[in-house]
Design goal:
This protein is of the alpha/beta class. It folds into 3 domains: about 5-145 and about 265-325, FAD/NAD(P)-binding domain, CATH 3.50.50; about 155-260, FAD/NAD(P)-binding domain, CATH 3.50.50; about 345-445, Enolase-like, domain 1 (2-Layer Sandwich). It is built from 12 helices and 21 strands. Strand 17 and strand 18 (about 350-355) form a beta hairpin. It is globular, with a radius of gyration of 24 Å. It starts with 6 loop residues before the first strand and ends in a 17-residue tail after the last helix.
């Protein structure tokens, strides 16, 4: 480290990407500082992936209780949800994870500052009224839910508040058509809340394969979620029972809760970027070049704040690449192709590779293989759920370029298939693979039409 600086690396934001970068830099003998104003672990640990998945699990039990009768189990009295117990047990688990992140940083030797850091110059950071200098600065401040302004918008809540509700409403309105909206619509519906999903566009999950989005919509409706497409909210007002959500079409939905899940913006406001040459996009995300360097040579950024691929494992890999660039042999790279992802909606969606529309644009000739079937659990369980899978193949190379699944355990299954896709597996490789029977996953190696 140059004697001119207090730290080799100053990381702003202790989410998954920031913590990984700090730990890796410290392991290489660098003097590292991390500043965090809210909670260790970032969005994923505190108000994202982890508590969301816990709530998804909770919301699936009613269907399992129902299915158990077909397998000979008598549940007796109707099970009741204790919301406060679920919420508080979730919070206890998150606090445990916060402590793990604290221990990881402490053990690495990085210094943690609790407070809001601002950038005062290319090598200058201010936190808690004290200025520090750093040879390099890493911004990993993530994203923040965005609620547009309209009459009554202050009455709506974001996904952040969903994890700490005092009580569950009897009826809810969820606004949005992306993965956060459909996930929370499924959670609320599964927990026994009458749920209305309102989206201004014509199709849910528009960033995913259209056919798969349609299957998710059908599955959600079969489970009782009421879906309004091509519909916009005009105003939200209070009433004696809760809220009135007025739609531009003229109708009104009375509800105890209005959740807006209409997107997230990069968390760069009031960060002090104007004191540097760093440039941002229209949504506040930071523009970066190769190896995550901004136009300010000493300042880097990664994770959700650069708005490339907003996934926790991506931010972690970006951090590994950055630290290798700064303090290693610069051999690590990140490939944004074939990144698997899942939407923990109900039914669940997981995918890797190209959508059918993308494949048609990229390749001259493709083949699409599909299978639609009832999972074995529901043959006795009695639910109407189905599984739908889809393989997309480039005819010239025989490579499988897209794989999609809607249904039980989609994320677990697609994670394994993603390795094959990444390795360049062909349809012939899939066909030559012997399936595990009986399983839903074996359908991927028995597709012939």
């Amino acid at each position: 480290m140059s004697d001119h600086y207090d730290f080799d690396l100053f990381v702003i934001g202790a989410g998954s990407g920031g913590v990984r970068a700090a730990r890796m830099a410290a392991s290489k003998g660098k003097k590292v500082a991390v500043a965090e104003e809210r909670y260790l672990g970032g969005t994923c640990v505190n108000v994202g992936c982890v508590p969301k998945k816990l709530f998804v699990y909770a919301s699936q039990f009613p269907e399992l209780f129902h299915a158990s009768r077909g397998f000979g189990w008598d549940m007796g009295d109707q099970p009741n949800l204790n919301w406060s117990r679920l919420r508080d047990n979730k919070t206890t688990e998150i606090e445990r994870l916060n402590l793990i992140y604290q221990q990881l940083l402490d053990n690495s030797g990085a210094k943690l500052f609790n407070g809001r850091a601002t950038v005062e110059g290319p090598h200058q950071i201010s936190i808690n009224g004290v200025d520090y200098s750093a040879e390099n600065i890493l911004i990993a401040t993530g994203g923040w839910p965005f609620i547009p302004e309209f009459p009554g918008s202050e009455l709506a809540i974001s996904s952040n508040e969903m994890f700490y509700l005092e009580q569950l409403p009897e009826k809810s309105v969820v606004v949005g058509g992306g993965y956060i909206a459909v996930e929370f619509a499924g959670i609320l519906n599964g927990l026994g809340v009458e749920t209305h999903l309102v989206y201004r566009g014509p199709q849910l999950l528009k960033a995913f394969d259209q056919e798969m989005g349609d299957r998710v919509k059908m599955g959600m409706q079969a489970k009782g979620v009421k879906i309004y497409l091509n519909t916009e909210v005009e105003e939200i007002t209070k009433n004696a029972q809760g809220l009135s959500v007025h739609l531009k079409a003229g109708n009104c939905i009375e509800a105890g809760l209005a959740l807006y899940a209409t997107g997230r913006n990069a968390n760069t406001a009031h960060l002090g970027l104007e004191n540097t040459a760093v440039t941002t996009n229209h949504n506040g995300s930071i523009q970066v070049e190769d190896q995550f360097r901004t136009v300010e040579p000493s300042i880097y950024a990664l994770g959700d704040v650069i708005d490339r691929v907003q996934l926790t494992p991506v931010a972690i890999q970006e951090a590994m690449v950055l630290i290798d660039h700064l303090y290693g042999d610069n051999s690590l790279e990140i490939d944004y192709n074939h990144i698997p992802t899942a939407v923990f909606c109900q039914p669940e969606l997981a995918t890797v590779g190209l959508t059918e529309a993308q494949a048609k644009q990229k390749y001259r000739n493709i083949q699409v293989y599909r299978s639609d079937f009832k999972p074995m659990l529901h043959t006795l369980g009695g639910a109407a759920d189905r599984i739908f899978i889809k393989l997309i193949v480039d005819c010239e190379s025989d490579r499988v370029v897209g794989c999609h699944m809607v249904g039980d355990h989609a994320a677990e299954i697609i994670q394994g298939i993603a390795i094959a896709i990444k390795a360049g597996a062909t349809k012939a490789h899939f066909d030559a693979t012997i399936g595990i029977h009986p399983s839903s996953a074996e359908e991927f190696v028995t597709l012939r039409q």
